[in-house]
Design a protein that fits this description.
GO molecular function: 4 iron, 4 sulfur cluster binding; catalytic activity; metal ion binding
Structural class: alpha/beta
Mean pLDDT: 93
Number of helices: 16
Bound molecules: pyridoxal-5'-phosphate, iron/sulfur cluster
Strand content: 15-25%
Keywords: 4Fe-4S, Iron, Iron-sulfur, Metal-binding, Pyridoxal phosphate, S-adenosyl-L-methionine
Protein name: KamA family protein
Shape: globular
Strand order of the largest sheet: 5-6-7-8-9-10-11-12-13-14-15
Cofactor: pyridoxal 5'-phosphate
Helix content: 25-40%
């Protein structure tokens, strides 16, 4: 897939819905695909850039190519009925279009797992913006200028914010509330800067958000959640301020803190170009640690070999496999979902082939309202078949690490689709799991 000249400097250029027909003619996508994509992209966000177009997609394998599935609106992501309603609404004018788009989006569960309502910390009795504090030791920080990405994943669980759902554009313009909150909460050791993609920010902007944290002695780790290694590795190599970015990371590390890049890597292809290898090696040279995570998504990475190859590649590059997530119940979930029973099998097959050093990975993990739940396996016992689960993280720390059983289901793809827990489940766990099911 490496085109001649692929490692030459590329200037970042994004393409959105307006460029779909240009892209279609450049890569010979047929008229029917284009027509559908132009409708679907009103509901599900679309953005690509020159790097993902020329380096990530195998155009000979389209439409089944995993990266093409991940980046382009596909037939089947919306129901035929919705596509038809959209088409009629578009013909009826802007207003009809907007109303119909909103109705369809509202049905796609745009705010999964209580993102909006829960976990917003208070400062002097007032709610804050751009902060979420769910697990005792870690706070999430959403800088306002990092709430987009270099390209959009069609399966994104934060998709609503990219299509202008302004209500969830909860984000922080600057870090003063964060710093004040941290001063009151010395138990928070870990600040996870997230988005969107914080790597969308210039180094100067990012510095304004990060540097003030270095004056808080209780902060020991700064994590940055990003998909830039996959979607724009030049950010770390030869963007204008790439060197300054690496100096900023070094400064964090020199202060005695850990700088962790939480890289969203969905497919081994994302690690295969010269520029991504260079980006990883430049990041590692700063002393930063790289942890890799992604959801398990049908049509993108739902085969054990995809994961085991990817985890091996990560280990070889010096990046640590961290989480395999279960895709959340949002957006075109019916298109992308993988039954939990398959997720367990895919994880176990991939995991069992790994060298020990790559067995740092955990999964499949559901990120639910009460916490992160891993499915450790399927248990066959005299009283039936069960999923064996465990909280890896929980709002209520007392739940962490205690195994419990949930009735096996062949088709369930989220906790909410699983039957009631057995009567011998401890009350606190049963209550938490029930609340996870309800709010989905
Ligand atoms: C996943 C997550 C974290 C980080 O959890 P780790 O297990 O420490 O990686 C923090 N806050 C929220 C809300 C999360 O979903
Ligand atoms: S990189 Fe992350 S936030 Fe951005 S579109 Fe993909 S899943 Fe969503």
């Amino acid at each position: 897939m490496n085109l001649p000249g692929a490692t030459e400097t590329m200037r970042y250029r994004a393409y959105g819905p307006r460029h779909l027909s240009e892209i279609a003619s450049r890569f010979s996508l047929d008229a029917e695909f284009l027509r559908n994509a132009q409708l679907v992209c009103r509901v599900i966000p679309f953005r690509v850039n020159e790097y993902v177009l020329s380096e990530m997609i195998d155009w000979d394998a389209v439409p089944d190519d995993p990266m093409f599935q991940m980046l382009f609106p596909q037939p089947g992501m919306l129901s035929d009925a919705d596509v038809q309603r959209l088409e009629e609404a578009v013909a009826d004018g802007k207003r009809a279009e907007r109303d119909t788009v909103r109705q369809i989006q509202a049905r796609l569960n745009p705010h999964p797992s209580g993102q909006r309502e829960f976990n917003v910390p208070l400062l002097g009795g007032e709610s804050t913006s751009g902060l979420q504090h769910k697990y005792r030791e870690t706070i999430l920080y959403f800088p306002q200028q990092g709430q987009t990405c270099h390209a959009y994943c069609t399966y994104c669980f934060r998709w609503a914010q990219f299509v202008g759902d302004s209500e969830i554009r909860f984000a922080a313009v600057e870090p003063s509330q964060l710093v004040a909150y941290l001063a009151d909460h010395p138990e928070v050791e870990d600040v996870l800067v997230t988005g969107g993609d914080p790597m969308m920010m210039s180094t100067e902007r990012l510095r304004e958000h990060i540097e003030p944290l270095l004056s808080v002695p209780t902060v020991r780790c700064i994590r940055i959640g990003t998909k830039a290694l996959a979607y724009w590795p030049y950010r770390f190599v030869d963007d204008e301020d790439a060197d300054d970015l690496l100096r900023l990371f070094e400064r964090v590390i020199d202060s005695g803190r850990n700088l962790a890049v939480m890289a969203h890597v969905s497919h081994g292809r994302e690690l295969g170009t010269d520029v991504v290898r260079e980006a990883v090696s430049r990041l590692r040279a700063t002393g930063a640690l790289i942890f890799c995570q992604a959801p398990l998504v049908a049509r993108v990475n739902d085969a054990p070999s995809v994961w085991s190859d990817m985890w091996r590649a990560q280990l070889a590059m010096g990046a640590l496999p961290y989480y395999m997530f279960v895709e959340r119940d949002t957006g075109p979930h019916d298109y992308f979902k993988v039954p939990l029973s398959d997720a367990v099998a895919i994880f176990q097959t991939a995991y069992s082939s790994l060298p020990g050093l790559a067995r740092t990975v955990r999964g499949p993990v559901m990120s639910t309202t009460p916490g992160k739940i891993v499915i450790d396996g399927v248990e066959q016992s005299p009283d039936g078949r069960f999923f064996r689960m465990r909280f890896l993280q929980a709002r209520n720390a007392g739940l962490v690490g205690r195994p419990f059983r949930a009735p096996f289901s062949e088709h369930a793809s989220w906790l909410s689709e699983i039957g009631p827990l057995t009567a011998d489940t401890p009350d606190d766990i049963a209550k938490a799991v029930r609340s996870a099911g309800e709010s989905q």
